[in-house]
Amino acid sequence: MKFAVIVFPGSNCDVDMYHAIADELQEEVEYVWHDEENLDRFDAILLPGGFSYGDYLRSGAIARFSNVMKAVQKAADEGKPILGVCNGFQILLEAGLLPGAMRRNNSLKFICRPVSLKVENNETMFTSSYEQGEIITIPIAHGEGNYYCDEPTLKRLIENRQIVFRYYGENPNGSLSDIAGIVNEKGNVLGMMPHPERAVDVLLGSADGLKLFQSIVKYWRETHVITA
Amino acid sequence: MYKVKVYVTLRESVLDPQGTAVKGALHSLSYTEVQDVRIGKFMELVIEKSDRDIDKLVREMCEKLLANTVIEDYRYEIEEVVVQ
């Protein structure tokens, strides 16, 4: 299986993402510059965290108009797994691939620490290796992770089980309905503020993020590898 | 030539944590009359005249990029200026 890690000017979690795939998951992975127009050779697309275009205007607002985002849109339409983490999530929101928007954290502070998450839906291509309701520890690192959407949108998210991760125990940023990660209606685009790529090795505090990447590979094998 | 002033603020229905903090600071300076503070962005655009309708153009820019209408409202003022 071949992963793309999209690199924007100002991305800074791209190397962590690459490491998670290449060294921990041991799958093929390639960096892709934001100018690239074709992502057909990839099976899954990863939008890493960071501060694309310096977060000028709004987080993700400028990155969403880069060339590669047209190809990301195409991959999303084709049903390929798309994962946006942190700034990657913000870009997916700005691009309209996921509903809602991010506000500054309630505390107005940049928060960087491990948090507890609850797996709210383990029937997605990103979470099938987790138990339903499993509590996991994944670090967050953001100043704008306070998710917002209007009432009808929230109702839809709940009804369609699009809320995949919720903050558990304590809501660090004020996010609506404790939302930490959501998928689109089709279920192949996941945006989340916590960083699973920073939690792939017990030595570094937690390996709870690894199952997310393993779920993607599992999904891909089930749908693409022909068994005799 | 046009000079366009664009104001972007969080929607009334969206809590503005910066504005709330600044209101608190003004209250602690004894300006207790302050009822509400909303913090936003101010952008000044200089736009060349073309055959495209200026009002439509600015509105499009706001909708597409300058404001995120999920959480933000915008308004703008268009002023025609003479180039020296």
From TrEMBL, chain A:
Q: Give the pathway annotation.
A: Purine metabolism; IMP biosynthesis via de novo pathway; 5-amino-1-(5-phospho-D-ribosyl)imidazole from N(2)-formyl-N(1)-(5-phospho-D-ribosyl)glycinamide: step 1/2
Record localization: Cytoplasm
UniProt KW keywords? ATP-binding, Cytoplasm, Glutamine amidotransferase, Hydrolase, Ligase, Nucleotide-binding, Purine biosynthesis
Name the catalytic site residues: C86 (nucleophile), H195, E197
The source's domain of life comes to Bacteria
Query: ATP-binding: is it a keyword of this entry?
Result: yes
- Short name of any one Pfam family annotated for the protein: GATase_5
Q: What is its main location?
A: cytoplasm
User: What Gene3D superfamilies is this protein classified in?
Assistant: 3.40.50.880
Which GO biological-process labels does this protein carry?
'de novo' IMP biosynthetic process
GO CC terms in record: cytoplasm
* Catalytic activity, reaction form: N(2)-formyl-N(1)-(5-phospho-beta-D-ribosyl)glycinamide + L-glutamine + ATP + H2O = 2-formamido-N(1)-(5-O-phospho-beta-D-ribosyl)acetamidine + L-glutamate + ADP + phosphate + H(+); L-glutamine + H2O = L-glutamate + NH4(+)
Keyword Ligase annotated:
yes
Question: What are its E.C. numbers?
Answer: 6.3.5.3, 3.5.1.2
Which SUPFAM superfamilies does this one have? Class I glutamine amidotransferase-like
Q: Recall the GO molecular function terms of this protein's record.
A: ATP binding; glutaminase activity; phosphoribosylformylglycinamidine synthase activity
Function per UniProt? Part of the phosphoribosylformylglycinamidine synthase complex involved in the purines biosynthetic pathway. Catalyzes the ATP-dependent conversion of formylglycinamide ribonucleotide (FGAR) and glutamine to yield formylglycinamidine ribonucleotide (FGAM) and glutamate. The FGAM synthase complex is composed of three subunits. PurQ produces an ammonia molecule by converting glutamine to glutamate. PurL transfers the ammonia molecule to FGAR to form FGAM in an ATP-dependent manner.
Q: How does it assemble?
A: Part of the FGAM synthase complex composed of 1 PurL, 1 PurQ and 2 PurS subunits.
Q: What is this protein called?
A: Phosphoribosylformylglycinamidine synthase subunit PurQ
Source organism per UniProt = Parageobacillus caldoxylosilyticus NBRC 107762
From TrEMBL, chain B:
Select a single GO molecular function from the record's annotations and give it.
ATP binding
Recorded catalytic activity of this chain's protein: N(2)-formyl-N(1)-(5-phospho-beta-D-ribosyl)glycinamide + L-glutamine + ATP + H2O = 2-formamido-N(1)-(5-O-phospho-beta-D-ribosyl)acetamidine + L-glutamate + ADP + phosphate + H(+)
Pathway entry: Purine metabolism; IMP biosynthesis via de novo pathway; 5-amino-1-(5-phospho-D-ribosyl)imidazole from N(2)-formyl-N(1)-(5-phospho-D-ribosyl)glycinamide: step 1/2
Q: Keywords in alphabetical order, please.
A: ATP-binding, Cytoplasm, Ligase, Nucleotide-binding, Purine biosynthesis
Q: Which domain of life is it from?
A: Bacteria
Q: Which GO terms describe its biological process?
A: 'de novo' IMP biosynthetic process
Q: Give the InterPro entries listed for this entry.
A: PurS (IPR003850), PurS-like_sf (IPR036604)
Give the GO cellular component terms, alphabetically. cytoplasm
Q: What EC number(s) would the UniProt record show? A: 6.3.5.3
Q: What class of enzyme is it?
A: ligase
Q: Where in the cell is it found?
A: Cytoplasm
| Primary location class | cytoplasm
What does this protein's UniProt record list under function?
Answer: Part of the phosphoribosylformylglycinamidine synthase complex involved in the purines biosynthetic pathway. Catalyzes the ATP-dependent conversion of formylglycinamide ribonucleotide (FGAR) and glutamine to yield formylglycinamidine ribonucleotide (FGAM) and glutamate. The FGAM synthase complex is composed of three subunits. PurQ produces an ammonia molecule by converting glutamine to glutamate. PurL transfers the ammonia molecule to FGAR to form FGAM in an ATP-dependent manner.
Quaternary structure, per UniProt, is: Part of the FGAM synthase complex composed of 1 PurL, 1 PurQ and 2 PurS subunits.
Give the protein family: Belongs to the PurS family.
PANTHER family annotated for this entry?
Answer: PHOSPHORIBOSYLFORMYLGLYCINAMIDINE SYNTHASE SUBUNIT PURS
The protein here is known as: Phosphoribosylformylglycinamidine synthase subunit PurS
Q: Which gene underlies this protein? A: purS
